[in-house]
Write a structure and sequence with these properties.
heterodimer; A: 123 residues; alpha/beta; 5-stranded parallel sheet; 5 strands; globular; B: 480 residues; Rossmann fold; 2 domains; 9-stranded mixed sheet; elongated
Chain lengths: 123, 480
């Protein structure tokens, strides 16, 4: 059981993702864009962040850069899940502990979550 | 001095013409239509055309549909470029912001996002949902006004997409600079897509309903020909020169040949020799007089075979590139698409000899028959102005009979020269006969002549022996 912050602007995906993670026994806090996710992370100090790429106000990459730049948050593992921009994520292996393609594959996602929580990188 | 407003391209063939040069820069438009009308494809095509022109685009959705599904659909279209996603074009959803924090929070977010992305085109997909969320119509008016003023402030153009049909006097309409409505109609059994610019501030748009289609290249619009070519695109320069018809004996009847840059209508029943006249005319093609066959009946291979059987060489001109054959099967056609295709083919090769086989193909494609006269006026005026000498055919329904209907009295008056072909029964044999009824600005031989097919195509022979009622096909010997 871990506390996970998800950053996803599309509510349908955010809802499905939350349910998936909650069913797997995790606690989820969702933010509708990168900027909101950053404040949520500062507030909740989660065990893991799962982020989309294209979002209002702050992209997933910008969120990861902000988290990595903050000493108190830089250790939090980050998973990027993206349709078209997964390659941009893979080009920044230092930013993401895992990069997954959309659409969501539940098994792969949960494996990546377990891996990231256990400290294994799967970029 | 009048000043024209700076524009951004739509990237949709025909739409810039309809809009009077494209979207006005920094202006906002509502694009409305039923689900499936093509709004999203249109807007994305505009978006990617502007990405291609070096702009940054922000695509904001208030839809339940995920962006991934949208990308899957867009992936089937030529203009979509996945590599631009998140780089020069960003798709972001503000649904949750709207749900959790209301319209004013969305406005604030859009303002920040335009600035952050440096966007000069904003697409806002799902204005309907903003309306559902608003407590009163005034709220949406304010919302639209705020979004567009934020955007205009930084020179960003806006397309609001909505599946509602806002009334013409709705507050949303009064706020925006332009309204484009997309329809899909089903007149009879076929469906026809049309678009209409219902409002266009600061720019004269072509009014009325314009046909469009959606293919793998996205949306293509076909401005109504009579609207876009209200006057010909170039100055008509009438000449007194004559153009050889290519038919043995016909030029003499016409008073020297076909007047250059004129339109000749050859009408008659099936089998009377209309297409034979056409191929003889086309066989005269050369480098200085490129020719075009634009037909609805014979495929290119059948037309070649037909010409060979007649002893007319069109293979030579085709192989030399002097003759092009365009075949548009008379199935489901769009009238204006045909018109634009024809003119494009004429302009592309600077065609001087055109054979249209036949006008009926255009008429069958028309959903609203009432506009045929205006359509043909625009088409024939443009052909004359382009210096094209045209022979068009019109098939008479009855092989024989006393009802001799010219193809619409108004249509006949748009035509410079009229040639009639008939089957005539006299003394227990059928004769093909040709008569010239009208030649523009020229004397002609009014006698009815027999037509025969020799070794080198159709030939105009001797005058018909004196009979009465030859024009009806039911000739009777003259009593002496």
């Amino acid at each position: 059981m871990a506390l996970i912050v998800i950053a996803e602007d599309e509510f349908l995906i955010a809802d499905v993702l939350s349910i998936m993670l909650e069913d797997a026994g995790h606690q989820v806090a969702a933010a509708p864009h990168g900027a909101a996710a950053l404040s949520l992370v500062k507030e909740k100090r989660p065990d893991l962040v799962i982020t989309d790429f294209m979002m209002p106000l702050m992209t997933g990459l910008e969120l990861a850069q902000a988290l990595r730049a903050d000493e108190t948050l830089s250790a939090i593992p980050i998973i990027l899940v993206s349709g078209a921009q997964a390659s941009i994520g893979r080009a920044h292996p230092d930013m993401f502990d895992a990069v997954l393609d959309k659409p969501y594959d539940e098994t792969r996602l949960l494996n990546a979550v377990e891996g990231a929580l256990a400290g294994r990188s799967t970029v | 001095m009048t000043q024209s407003l700076p524009r951004i391209i739509s990237g949709v063939d025909g739409l810039d013409q309809i809009l009077g040069g494209g979207f006005v820069e920094g202006a906002s438009y509502i694009v409305q239509g039923q689900p499936g009308a093509g709004k999203t494809i249109l807007a994305n095509q505009v978006a990617f055309a502007n990405v291609g022109a070096g702009r940054k685009v922000l695509y904001i959705t208030l839809l339940a549909e995920t962006h991934d599904r949208l990308f899957q659909v867009l992936g089937t279209l030529d203009f979509f470029d996945r590599n631009q996603l998140g780089v020069t074009i960003s798709y972001v959803s503000v649904f949750q912001t709207l749900r959790d924090s209301g319209l004013s929070a969305v406005v604030e977010l859009v303002r920040k996002e335009i600035a952050r992305q440096g966007a000069t085109l904003l697409v806002f997909d799902g204005l309907l949902n903003a309306r559902d969320r608003a407590d009163s119509p005034l709220d949406v008016k304010t919302f639209v006004a705020e979004i567009q003023s934020q955007a205009a402030f930084v020179g960003c153009s806006v397309l609001f997409l909505t599946s509602t049909r806002f009334a013409d006097d709705s507050p949303e309409h009064t706020m925006v600079d332009g309204v484009i409505e997309l329809h899909e109609e089903v007149p009879g059994v076929r469906s026809v897509r049309r678009l209409q610019v219902k409002k266009s501030r600061g720019s004269p748009a072509l009014g009325g309903l314009h046909q469009f289609e959606i293919t793998s290249s996205g949306v293509t619009a076909y401005p109504r020909l009579e609207a876009v070519l209200r006057s010909p695109s170039t100055q008509d320069e009438p000449s007194l020169a004559a153009v050889a018809s290519g038919v043995e004996g016909l030029d003499e009847l016409l008073g020297g040949g076909l007047p250059a840059s004129s339109v000749t209508l050859v009408f008659g029943p099936s089998g009377a020799g209309k297409t034979a006249i056409g191929v003889s005319f086309l066989a005269k093609a050369n480098r200085d007089e490129p020719a075009l066959h634009f037909g609805f009946y014979e495929t290119p291979t059948r037309l070649r075979a037909k010409a060979r059987a007649l002893g007319v060489d069109i293979d030579g001109p085709i192989d030399a590139g002097d003759l092009e054959i365009i075949w548009e099967p008379m199935t489901e056609n769009l009238l204006d698409k045909l018109g634009h295709q024809l003119l494009q083919a004429v302009r592309r090769r600077k065609v001087k000899r055109l054979f249209l086989d036949g006008l009926g193909g255009f008429q069958r494609a028309a959903v609203h028959q009432a506009r045929m006269t205006e359509f043909f006026s625009a088409l024939t005026n443009e052909l004359r102005a382009l210096g094209v000498t045209t022979i068009a055919t019109w098939e008479l329904r009855d092989l024989f009979g006393p009802t001799l209907t010219a193809p619409g009295s108004e249509l006949s008056s748009l035509i410079d020269n009229l040639v009639m072909l008939r089957h005539i029964e006299a003394e227990s044999r059928y004769t093909k006969a040709l008569s010239v009824l009208k030649v523009r600005d020229s004397a002609f031989d009014p006698a009815i002549h027999e037509v025969s097919f020799g070794n080198t195509g159709i030939r105009i022979d001797v005058p018909l022996p004196p009979v009465a009622n030859a024009a009806t096909g039911l000739a009777t010997p003259l009593s002496t």
